[in-house]
Design goal:
This protein has about 260 residues and is of the alpha/beta class. The chain has 2 domains: about 180 residues, Rossmann fold (3-Layer(aba) Sandwich), CATH 3.40.50; about 50 residues, no CATH class. Helix content is about 30%, strand content about 25%. The protein is built from 6 helices and 12 strands. The strands form 2 sheets. It has a 7-stranded mixed β-sheet, with helices on both faces. Helix 1 runs parallel beside helix 4. The radius of gyration is 17 Å and the shape is globular. The two termini are about 35 Å apart.
């Protein structure tokens, strides 16, 4: 059974403020969560695990040997994803822009205040679940703070979640001990893999309309560039741009 793992940074255990990729403690914390998820996936029946490190830099000599790893990709996509994967696990996720109490809550870029897919308000758990859903692959686990996990379940249904901290604000959280989060992530990952046939993929049907609202004057200039750079874009108002495409990954990357 093949499992895809998408890894972010802000929702990792013990992280509550912005950390650079070269921060050694952040690397150790991310390695801790990734390895726990891999152990759980293997317990759940995974025979092949592909890990995309979308943000961060786990410590390579300490990463679990029974997985394969990719670094951050631009344009952002689920590189290597295809319909042969049983499920996707989203590790270290964070809440969407504007979410109350969400730790480091944002949607892709801090200049974005809101993003919608075909009218549905989404954060990154929804964005990447929709990408996986284009291959018929369900997102069966999201780990992060309690705000993120609630957001994921509201959108994706009764998936597995691992709440590794409780959000108190942008850079404030009550964090669980690492020994506790390791056991939690491992157990939820195992359950997520076992339940892969029970959980439906998050499907969004084309045409894909990505509406992005920006929140700064600098971002308005970003919006201008989006509109002038492609015939797929439409300026809705001073701060909002819509991208319409039959290719979901293309639509998102034009929106960023």
């Amino acid at each position: 059974m093949k499992v895809y793992m998408f890894v972010d940074m802000e929702g990792i255990s013990g992280i509550y403020t912005h950390r650079e990729d070269h921060d050694e403690e952040a690397q150790r914390l991310q390695t801790h969560d990734v390895n726990a998820a891999i152990e759980g996936a293997l317990e759940g029946g995974a025979t092949e695990i592909l890990v995309q490190i979308a943000h961060g830099k786990p410590r390579p000599f300490e990463l679990h040997p029974k997985a394969r790893y990719m670094n951050r990709l631009t344009p952002l996509c689920l590189q290597g994803m295809d319909k042969s994967f049983a499920c996707m696990l989203h590790i270290g996720c964070h809440a969407r822009a504007g979410a109350q109490r969400g730790v480091l809550a944002h949607t892709v870029e801090v200049e974005i205040s809101e993003q919608r897919i075909n009218g549905v308000l989404v954060g990154e758990c929804g964005i990447f679940a929709a990408m996986a859903g284009q291959f018929g692959v369900p997102t069966t686990l999201v780990t992060g703070d309690d705000v993120t996990c609630a957001e994921a379940r509201d959108l994706l249904g009764d998936i597995e979640v691992a709440e590794v901290k409780r959000g108190l604000g942008w850079n404030q959280a009550i964090c669980l001990p690492l020994a506790e989060t390791a056991a939690l992530i491992r157990a939820r990952a195992a359950a997520a893999v076992r339940r892969s046939t029970e959980i439906a993929p998050y499907r969004v049907e084309p045409p894909f309309v990505i509406r992005t609202t920006y929140n700064t004057w600098e971002a308005i200039q970003m919006a201008d560039r989006r509109v002038s750079g492609t015939a797929l874009a439409e300026r809705v108002d001073e701060r909002t741009v819509e991208i319409t495409s039959d290719n979901l990954i293309e639509a998102f990357n034009l929106s960023w």
